[in-house]
Design goal:
Layout: E1 14-19, H1 25-37, H2 44-50, H3 56-68, E2 73-78, H4 84-93
Parallel strand pairs: 1-2
Helix pairs in contact: 1-2, 3-4
Length: about 90
């Protein structure tokens, strides 16, 4: 579609994914996604939360998967406000 529209080069593909790490990661994810921001989805939010990365290994795999499908920039969005979320993310993917 990019080339068909007469555009040169390649599009920059940016994606966003949510995550939670630490001892209460699953509870944190559920609070944010199921009981918080996405509770309007009528049940889909439970599937969404269940697929959200909750461990360093899952974060590392998710980063690799997005890279494998050609994502140029991946934005990790924490489901908790504690700075340890970012530290855990950095330990997992950098």
């Amino acid at each position: 579609a990019w080339k068909s529209a007469g555009r040169e080069g390649a599009p920059k593909i940016v994606a966003l994914t949510y995550f939670g790490v630490g001892p209460n990661a699953r509870e944190q994810i559920d609070n944010y996604i199921i009981r918080g921001y996405y509770d309007f989805l009528g049940g889909y939010e439970k599937q969404f939360a269940a697929r959200t990365s909750d461990s360093p290994a899952a974060l590392k795999q998710e980063a690799a998967t997005f890279a494998d499908v050609g994502v140029d920039e991946l934005i990790f969005f924490p489901t908790g406000a504690d700075v340890q979320q970012l530290e855990g993310l950095a330990d997992a993917v950098l």
